[in-house]
Structure formats: C-alpha cells, structure tokens
Amino acid sequence: MSLQKFLTQAVSSWMSDEGPDSDIVLSSRIRLARNLSDYKFPTLFTNEEAAEVVERVEKNLESEPFHQFGAIESLKIDELHALQKRVLVEKHLISPYLAEDANHPAVLLSENEDISIMINEEDHIRIQCLFPGLQLKEALKRANQIDDLMEEQLDYAYNEKLGYLTSCPTNVGTGMRASVMMHLPALVLTQQVNRIIPAINQLGLVVRGIYGEGSEALGNIFQISNQITLGKSEEDIIEDLNSVVQQLISQERSAREALVKTSNIQLEDRVFRSYGVLTNSRVIETKEAAKCLSDVRLGIDLGFFSHISKNILNELMILTQPGFLQQYAGGSLRPHERDIRRATLIRERLKLEENQISKEEN
C-alpha cells in the first residue's frame, strides 16, 4: 500500500459494493470524536504534545487486535503537497481542517479506505467509518469496535455527567456524528426539497452539501447528519436519522415515479441531453459536470441506460474535482485548463465504459 494508491484511485474499493437503498443513499458515515485526558485540546497544545499524540495513537494501532481491520497506512499531512491534501479531502478521507489548519496532523487509512482515523484535527482523535448505501448501524458497530480497542490503551477525556469531552461544545456527549450522503434529483426537480430541508433542520438534523459544512449540494447530492450529541444515546441518534432518511427515500422514489408518469418525455430529454453534453463537450465547468452526471445517474436508476454502470458516475463525481484533475495532469492548472481537461476525462472515461460493457455483452 502506498500514498500513490490513495491519490490515484478515485473510487475507494468499499464504494464498489452495493448497499441497501444505494439508488438513493450513496454512503453512510459514522465519526467519533475523542480526546486524551492527559493532553490539552488541539487548540491549546504545543507542537511537542501534538507529536506525542500522533506517536501514541500510531503505536496503539500497531497492536495485534487491530490486524482484523487489515493493513493501515499512516500519512503525515504536513509532508504532503497542497494538491495531495486536496485529493484526500475530495475523497472524504480527511477534512479540510486537517488539511489546512491542524497542528502536526496525521491520518491512518485502511487499505480499502472505509476506515479513516484523523489525528490532531479539532480533537486528538476522529474515527471515521464509511459503508455503501444505508448502513448506519453497521458503520456504528465498526466504529465502536475500533473505539473500544483504542480505549483499552488510551485514557479518554470523559465526564460521568457530560460524556466525552471535545474541543467544540456541539460534540460533547457521545462525540458522534452520523451522516448519510443522498442523491435527491427528483426532489430538486419538483422543488420539494425547498420545503423539506427546513423541516429536517427543525428535527435536530442538518442538511449540507457534498463536502459538509459550507459546501454546495453539487449534483443534487446532500449530506444529512445529526446536530445533537448530548442527552441522546448513539442508538437513539441513529434511530432518529434512519427514520428521516427512510422518509426521504420514500419521497424521492415517489417524486421519480410522478416525473415518469407526468413528464416522462421531458425527463428523458433532460437525461439524454445531459448525456450528450458529457460525451461531446470540449469544455465543462464543475457545476455543469455535476448537474449532467446527476441527470445521467437518475437515467440509469430509471432504466433509460443499460450500457453505463452507477459506479462510473460515482467515480466521475470525484475524478472531475479540481484536485484530482490536477493530480492527473501532474501539476497546477488554471481554471480554464481544468475545464478542458475535465471534459476530455469525462468523454474518454465514458467511452471506455461503453466499450467494456459492449465486450462483456458479446
């Protein structure tokens, strides 16, 4: 395993698996925030203390019980170039904060990238587990396994009344953030999402874009997560989020059915026009590419296409981000150069996919 693998493989291997309700739910994520009791929080500790935290966590994960999770690679973020950091952010393997603002940051990554343990982010430790489709309970089980093993050798900052202590008060308690990434094109097209999002926010949940806080919902992809970590158990948080996500799945499917019944020819036209843009454009910006990829993904889910897999679109959503484009180019690109390379990459990748499926059919 090497850094190059994490930087050149757009789709993590766990993303290739089909999960429950994966036509709408792209992924489920659990993140646990933990701090060591004998060190100041990352906002206050020294460089020496930060380095000690990294060493202690890395040593912990070298122990035999962690071998059940496969090979785990340690990356020192400060040793990476800006472009390499950006690619890891685009793959959701590290946070923007760890990439840019953290003190002595590091990350421990599993081979198939379903486990990411960030060190010295806003908290000493942030355990992240990712699963395809709607699998919040399974992701929580995996995260708790890792957390329990780590706690056998590390003394966490914990208060009997408040729970796990964290740098940000909004994470105190369980220290858990549960989230799902959802593709909701029909709710956007029918404008129902405009009334749904405020209703979700009133339930103690938050709706964000594809890269979390402060990001846009590119390609009609939304991240739904809990806001409350104090006063509720992990199981209750998961149950509440699952309930809302199930309702969103039902509403998205109903909206898709309604579009097919009432506006099928217009929907087909939109989907095939977007496919035409992707397969013929010579210049395409990030937002337009994301919109067209979303349309084509919807067309695949509705059975309009049989010669493209859903995975290729998951791959292209990441490959066409600025960091990945420049990684493939081998250096920095101006915005217009990125738009040209993005169009070329999409055309070539879709053509390769068509040829591959054609061979398999013959």
Index terms:
alpha+beta, kinase, eight-stranded antiparallel beta sheet, 10 strands, 362 residues, Creatine Kinase, Chain A, domain 2, two-stranded antiparallel sheet, globular, single chain
Structure description:
By secondary structure, the chain is of the alpha+beta class. It folds into two domains: 1-14 and 31-173, 2-Layer Sandwich (Creatine Kinase, Chain A, domain 2); 259-361, no CATH class. The chain has helices at 3-8, 47-61, 82-90, 96-100, 136-151, 185-189, 193-201, 234-280, 286-301, 310-319, 322-329, 335-361, and strands spanning 25-34, 72-76, 106-110, 115-119, 125-132, 158-159, 163-164, 176-183, 205-208, 221-226. The strands form two sheets. Strands 2-3-4-5-1-8-10-9 form an eight-stranded antiparallel β-sheet, with helices on one face. A two-stranded antiparallel sheet has the order 6-7. It is globular and about 65 Å long. The mean pLDDT is 90.
What are the low-pLDDT stretches, counting only 5+ consecutive residues below 50?
Answer: none
CATH superfamily of the largest domain: Glutamine synthetase/guanido kinase, catalytic domain
User: What is the overall silhouette?
Assistant: globular
- The CATH class of the largest domain turns out to be Alpha Beta
Quick check: average pLDDT? Answer: 90
Distance between the termini: 35 Å
Strand composition percent = 15-25%
Helix % is: 40-55%
